[in-house]
Amino acid sequence: MTITIKRCTVDDLSLLQEISVETFNETFQNQNSPENMRIYLESAFNLQRLEIELTNNSSEFYFINSNEETAGYLKLNMNDAQSEPMGNDSLEIERIYIRKKFHKQGLGRYLINKACEIAIERRKEKVWLGVWEKNQGAITFYKKMEFVQTGTHSFIMGDEEQIDLIMIKTIK
After folding, report:
1. Rounded to 5 degrees, what are φ and ψ at 128?
2. pLDDT reading at 80 higher than 80
3. Overall pTM > 0.90
4. What whole-number distance in Å separates Cα of residue 99 and Cα of residue 26?
5. Could you give the CA distance from residue 44 to residue 94 in angstroms, rounded to a whole number?
6. Half-sphere exposure of 51 toward its Cβ, with a 13 Å CA cutoff?
7. What are the residue ranges spanned by the domains of the chain?
8. Which residues contact 22 (CB under 8 A, 6 or more apart)?
């Protein structure tokens, strides 16, 4: 298996949108109402919004490819692009989205390691993320990757407020 990671550009918007909708649906459609899913997907992953995020100097997107097929992506935020005010010494992993057929291949580990490498390059002291309190598989994975829960924040899914656990990994 050949794994490559490359930074996304505005030329990648359509593929970014496709993977976003596909993976979010695969992961969360069974735990949320169809209406809330529709509202969220249309808001979070429309091309205009993704282009704004992609062209923000404090955000970065990276595709991960397995044997030259795009398997998913990583979205990072720094400085004022972070979804919570965690300080300039922090880097946020906002999204790790892996297509279902690529699950259980270690690709999430590659993306966490990439985020940590970037954090070190940018002289960040911690990497953090928010994960839905009901996403036990992801929580277990992040704990294995040395993330520790430090708090919670709200995540709005359509007309429902959900709770995300804030998890932080200190960079050595």
Report:
1. -135, 165
2. yes
3. yes
4. 8
5. 12
6. 6
7. 3-170
8. 99
Q: Among the options 62, 73, 97, 142, which is catalytic?
A: 142
Read out DSSP for the chain? --EEEEE--GGGHHHHHHHHHHHHHHHHGGGS-HHHHHHHHHHHSSHHHHHHHHT-TTEEEEEEEETTEEEEEEEEEEGGGSSS---TTEEEEEEEEE-GGGTTSSHHHHHHHHHHHHHHHTT-SEEEEEEETT-HHHHHHHHHTT-EEEEEEEEEETTEEEEEEEEEEE--
According to CATH, what is the number of the domain 3-170?
3.40.630.30
Q: Which amino acid is at 75?
A: K
The DSSP bridge partners found for residue 65 are 4, 70
Assess whether pLDDT exceeds 80 at residue 111: yes
For residue 58, pLDDT over 80 is answered with yes
Instruction: Return d(Cα 149, Cα 97) in angstroms, integer.
Output: 20
* Backbone angles phi and psi of 156, in degrees to 5: -95, 120
pLDDT at 56: 97
Q: Are 77 and 83 in contact (CB under 8 A)?
A: yes
Active site residue 40: no
Mean pLDDT estimate for the chain = 95
